[in-house]
Write a structure and sequence with these properties.
The complex is a heterodimer. By secondary structure, chain A is α/β, with parallel strands linked by helices. Chain A is built from twelve helices and seven strands. Chain A has four domains: about 5-100 and about 145-180, Rossmann fold; about 105-135, no CATH class; about 195-315, no CATH class; about 320-345. In chain B, the strands form twelve sheets. Chain B has a five-stranded parallel beta sheet with strand order 10-7-6-18-29, covered by helices on one side. The chains are: A alpha/beta, B alpha/beta.
């Protein structure tokens, strides 16, 4: 009997869906072994179809995108119940991804920007979405919780396929491993075990005595990137050393530094912190003012550089959310005190 | 709480009273009660002095009787007694690295005012340790052989003493001196206090002994470029600066000096503090060791214009037959391997120009004490006659004490030697010139064998003592008796009046300061400096010549102002410490080093250039980084940097640190 498989997308760009299609002929081969029972972006199944399956009937659900809205949470919980294996597919599902950077703004800011302050927004009145939605059409809008979450913050996740989007070779290897008789232990990230440097063709251009960096540059600032020298040594903030391998250095071969979409290696608690830590250590200066200048000139967006894909799962995010909670509690208390004072008057 | 590394932890916690040092401010019993209820704790005890024999026996007995496999002592700083308790753990039959120390003295009782919060803090730290130790693993120390040779930096009386002591014990010594001759400051003195014996008479034999000793290799006019390595195995790179005279050929005959194109000396002699003159080719002083000429390229015509007749070279070649002068000599770098290093780089004197009120540099008859040392020296510029720059003999002399010392505007410390050398100079000046000598002092400090007696003797000799800090030295005279003299204005604090004392000559008793390059030397050697810049000893009382870097010892005034007897005693102590290290034959290296998991290493090269000790190399074959255990100092830089989490630091693993944080936050 063919194994049942589901695909679902949450907050994502659609690139991960493309990654499945990119499997090309392999997908046709795979269909000998698997049967797709749910794939909103490509096939006409409804939620009801999934609901009708018995629990655990689906062999594996591949879920991409970060969990941002209430409907996404509902569906992934349903898929969790119906599936033996849940695979977080792609950077957003794995670590929060680019949509995860929304967590640096609170819920109100996001709404204000999208509905009032954004440069492309026409201001007509004070229209705001509410969970009960636009009643005229008898549909309910899903609720935005105020933060994006990687899949494992919502449901239990068995495997991860990293990448933004995961390249075909990685997806293919992962599928083969999952379908094999001896699948890898749960929790495994289905890609390389070492950092990108281990498979990077430029790794051997590093001198044996190591190297340090005097200046960082952004790819847009340089007219010429030497294709035969380690990009990091040229001052491009390549996150290869801290990023899991598996992509065969796709970006590097395209003369662009690694931005870390495959996430950290096992044992690293916080990708951005590890990235920051290694890159900062390489700065070739002991003078604080000079170091500040090197950072200001070459790394103008540290959050976007170090946490491009991993913010929602980071310690930094935890700190931020806790701080926000405290601030909210503080504000509410102030307001109550104020209300009481007014009342007393 | 997590399980730790597999074995079920059986923890013993020992809280020390340290007399009242800890117990006075921490409720020790409450900490013990608290600890005894923590998970994994089998026994918790208190004791008055854990470091004492009975205290250590508690640990040993409990390990045997209660099968402890983790030991925690909450007491003082690990610097003081970590070794003690590790040893006790070992003697009890457990691996010493299953022990952990909590500092509740320096970090708690001494710095926390409120007893209740001190007790809470002590509890938190103990709980942190209880959580941490379950991740401890048995570690092995590594033994490495000790190179028996010793490097001594600085050839003053401290360096000389240490060198001779070690060389007489049969050890090979490399003595590096920055100047042309060894001898340091002491070689400039005429007499030493309080016995007034002749400085050169007691120093010169030692200097010659250094030169003649088969075990001492002397590098003069040389500096340390770089020190690498670790206790027992240091590599020093020594820069030999060119003196333009081939050392092996020169016999110190002065023929070159006599035949220099300059018929008379024209340039200020550094050794004579600028009071005497020398030629471009010179021997710094008659007792110099080595007695070898040197050419100063700043003043030599050959170096300035290449047009000198080079009569010195000719004379050396033709008259003496040595051909020792070589204008093409270049600097040379020599590398030596040693097991221990003694730093004896000495001091510099306070720059009297920094106190413009005292007129040094403005009034020719204001001298520093070091200049007077040269003036009274029989081999000095005046042959020991005390005459002023205008050729007159002084009839009234004022000696101002504490110049730059005990002064919050300059140096807060007492320079320790100035009182005594001022008394000595007062005696010598009076003896040689019959002048009236006035001492202006804040306090007279004469603690030392025979020092107070010397002071007493001077008072009887009729030297004047005026208690008060001098306000100013001025040539603005009022009365006829002041005319042509310098006037010292001072508040006589014993009488309570402001006095004006006219004198012919003023001697400024300048204090002692760390050398300008002390910070650089400190960095080269990786030792510590106090905030003032003196090299820091490991313990002010119990380890006065050791530093926080194993194998490096300090002696003499580079550690703080001290006189010759103290310096010599300290140099002997440093030599003895070095000997103890060498004769042990090997050292144990602490296992708190970084280790690389080859399975995890991605070969990204990031750690390599960051290691401050160059302990990491790259293995091309395996495509992994490799740490040289002997070079690793456990600083943790690579551990924090490794993007693959392939490097861990023993005794400071992530698990241990996170458990410690968890524990400290739980209270």
């Amino acid at each position: 009997m063919k194994k049942k498989v589901a695909f679902y997308w949450c907050a994502s760009c659609g690139g991960c869906e493309e990654a499945v299609v990119d499997l090309a002929e392999f997908l046709l081969d795979a269909l000998e072994q698997i049967e797709i029972v749910f794939w909103p972006v490509a096939m006409d199944f409804k939620i009801e179809d999934v609901e009708q399956l018995t629990d655990g009937e689906i062999f594996a659900s591949f879920i991409n995108g970060a969990v941002l809205l209430s409907d996404q949470e509902e569906v992934v919980r349903l898929l969790r119940r119906k599936s033996q294996v849940v695979v977080a597919f792609g950077s957003c599902s794995h670590q929060g991804g680019v949509p995860g950077l929304i967590n640096t703004h609170d819920r109100q800011d996001v709404f204000d920007y999208y509905y009032h302050n954004g440069p492309t927004v026409q201001r007509n009145g004070n229209e705001m979405p509410t969970p009960t939605g636009a009643k005229a059409f008898h549909v309910a809008l899903p609720e935005y919780y105020g933060k994006a979450r990687p899949l494992n913050q919502v449901i239990e996740v068995d495997y991860y396929i990293p990448g933004c989007a995961p390249p075909p070779n990685v997806v293919k290897d992962a599928l083969l491993q999952l379908l094999s008789d001896s699948p890898p232990p749960r929790g495994t990230v289905l890609a390389g075990a070492h950092s990108l440097c281990s498979e990077c063709p430029l790794n051997e251009t590093k001198p044996p005595e190591g190297f340090k960096i005097k200046q960082f540059v952004r790819p847009s600032q340089v007219t010429h990137i030497d294709p035969d020298t380690c990009l990091l040594m040229q001052g491009l903030p390549c996150l290869g050393p801290v990023t899991r391998s598996g992509c065969n250095a796709l970006c590097i071969k395209g003369h662009m530094p690694c931005t870390g979409c495959f996430g950290p290696l096992d044992g690293v608690r916080d990708f951005g912190a590890a990235a920051l830590s290694f890159l900062a250590s390489l700065i070739d200066s002991n003078d604080e003012a000079e170091i500040q200048r090197i950072i200001d000139e070459g790394l103008p967006d540290p959050l976007g550089t170090f946490y491009m894909y991993s913010f929602p799962g980071s310690l930094l995010n935890e700190v931020l959310q806790k701080g926000r909670q405290k601030a909210r509690a503080w504000r509410e208390r102030e307001e109550t005190v104020e209300a009481q004072t007014t009342e007393n008057q | 709480m997590k399980q730790g590394n597999g074995t079920v932890p059986r923890i013993g916690v020992y809280v020390c009273h340290c007399g009242t040092n800890i117990a006075g401010n921490v409720d020790v019993k409450a900490v013990v009660d608290f600890a005894s209820k923590l998970p994994g704790v089998v026994v918790a005890r208190e004791y008055k002095y854990m470091c004492s024999d009975p205290g250590q026996s508690l640990i040993k007995n409990d390990i045997r009787e209660k099968n402890l496999n983790r030991v925690i002592v909450a007491s003082c700083s690990p610097h003081l007694h970590e070794h003690t308790f590790r040893h006790a753990t070992l003697e009890g039959g457990q691996n010493p690295y299953l022990f952990h120390m909590v500092n509740i003295r320096e970090q708690v009782s001494w710095v926390t005012e409120d007893k209740m919060s001190a007790t809470e803090k002590a509890k938190a730290l103990v709980e942190a340790a209880v959580y941490r130790v379950r991740y401890h693993e048995a570690l092995e120390t590594k033994e490495v052989p000790v190179n028996p040779d010793v490097l001594i930096i600085g050839g003053g009386i401290a360096g000389i003493t240490a060198a001779l002591t070690l060389a007489n014990a049969g050890k090979k010594v490399y003595l590096v001196e920055r100047d042309y001759s060894i001898g340091g400051h002491m070689a400039k003195f005429d007499k030493t206090f309080p016995t007034l014996d002749c400085a050169s008479c007691i120093l010169t034999p030692k200097m010659t002994a250094v030169k003649d000793h088969p075990n001492i290799h002397l590098f003069t006019y040389s500096e340390i470029l770089e020190i690498d390595g670790y206790v027992g195995n240091f590599t020093a790179r020594i820069l030999k600066k060119p003196r333009y005279v081939i050392e092996d050929r020169c016999i110190g005959c002065y023929v070159c000096v006599e035949h220099c194109v300059y018929k008379t000396p024209k340039f200020p002699s550094e050794f004579d503090e600028g009071l005497g003159l020398r030629k471009p080719v010179f021997i710094p002083f008659p007792q110099a060791v080595p007695l070898i000429a040197a050419i100063d390229p700043e003043t030599c015509i050959e170096f300035k214009s290449h047009r000198c007749k080079k009569t010195c070279q000719e004379a050396c070649r033709d008259l003496v037959g040595r051909d020792a002068i070589d204008f093409t000599q270049r600097e040379e770098v020599v590398e030596v391997q040693v097991g221990a290093i003694i730093v004896a780089t000495g001091f510099k004197t306070f720059d009297a120009r920094r106190i413009p009120e005292y007129g040094y540099g403005r009034y020719p008859n204001v001298y520093t004490s070091l200049e007077i040392e040269r003036l009274v020296n029989s081999s000095g510029p005046t042959g020991g006659e005390i005459v002023m720059r205008d050729g007159r003999k002084p009839r009234r002399v004022g000696i101002i004490h504490c110049v730059g010392s005990r002064d919050r505007n300059f140096n807060p410390w007492c320079s320790r030697v100035c009182c005594m050398y001022s008394l000595k100079l007062a005696h010598l000046v009076r003896e040689r010139t019959g002048a009236e000598v006035y001492n202006f002092y804040i306090d007279i400090r004469t603690p030392g064998k025979g020092y107070e007696e010397f002071y007493e003797k001077l008072m009887q000799e009729g030297v004047h003592f005026i208690r008060g800090k001098v306000a100013e030295v001025t040539d603005w005279t009022i009365t006829p008796e002041e005319t042509g003299k310098l006037v010292i204005r001072v508040e006589d604090s014993l009488v309570g009046v402001v006095r004006r004392i006219p004198v012919d000559m003023v001697i400024l008793s300048v204090g002692l300061e760390p050398r300008d390059d002390a910070e650089e030397v400190r960095r080269q050697l990786n030792i510590s400096c106090s905030s003032e810049g003196w090299f820091l000893e490991r313990h002010p009382k119990l380890a006065p010549v050791s530093t926080f870097t194993d194998g490096i010892f300090i002696a003499g005034a580079c550690q703080g102002p001290k006189d010759i007897p103290d310096t010599v005693a300290q140099a002997g102590a440093a030599a003895a410490e070095a000997l103890a290290l060498i004769d042990r034959g090997s050292v144990e290296l602490e296992p708190n080093i970084a280790v690389i998991d080859e399975q995890k290493c991605s070969g990204c090269h990031v750690c390599i250039a960051l290691c401050p000790y160059s302990a990491i190399a790259f293995n091309e074959e395996k495509n992994v980084a490799v740490i040289n255990e002997a070079l690793c100092k456990g600083c943790g830089v690579c551990v924090g940097t490794c993007p693959s989490k392939a490097i861990t630091q023993q005794l400071f693993t992530d698990e241990e640190l996170l458990a410690e944080i968890e524990g400290v936050l739980l209270v």
